[in-house]
Design a protein that fits this description.
Layout (H helix, E strand, L loop, with lengths): L1 E2 L15 E6 L3 H16 L10 H7 L1 H9 L16 E2 L3 E3 L2 E7 L6 H17 L6 E4 L3
Parallel strand pairs: 1-6
Antiparallel strand pairs: 2-5, 2-6, 3-5, 4-5
Helix pairs in contact: 1-4
């Protein structure tokens, strides 16, 4: 997979923000399906790059904090976990690929960005996409 330079804009330890990502490939439907599978995993990534399992995610209570945050109420989390991405949109299918929007709370560290890229790559491969380009969309 080719990853454009602007994806996640990680040039220092803290230098990322909300992202609108596009997977360019020959099979837009498969790319969209890969992003559907990636979405819950992306939301379970912590600031330090750890990806929580589904069980860890459920027991952490982070899903409740994320839902409240999307509703405009900021909740302090009861345990020392910081979610790197609170929201991932449903994929949009385009003639040349599929895109998603990620709310990364205007901050993103290198470790979380690396985990995001690994998850997207794994899910694309699982859908049979071994040639793709990941880019940031404007707007």
């Amino acid at each position: 997979m080719i990853i454009d330079d602007g994806v996640f804009r990680v040039e220092s330890d803290l230098d990322g923000w909300n992202e609108r990502l596009m997977v360019f490939c020959d099979d837009p439907q498969a790319a969209a399906q890969a992003l559907v599978h990636a979405s819950p995993r992306l939301q379970r990534v912590l600031w330090d790059g750890r990806e929580l399992s589904e069980g860890e995610w459920q027991s952490s209570g982070l899903q409740h904090a994320a839902a409240a945050n999307r509703g405009g109420t900021r909740l302090a989390h009861p345990i020392d976990l910081t979610q790197a991405c609170e929201y991932v949109s449903e994929p949009t299918v385009h003639p040349d690929g599929a895109s998603i929007y990620m709310d990364t709370n205007s901050e993103l560290g290198r470790a979380a960005a690396a985990t995001f890229l690994a998850i997207i790559r794994e899910e694309l491969l699982a859908e049979g996409i071994d040639r793709a380009r990941l880019a940031e969309l404007d707007g």
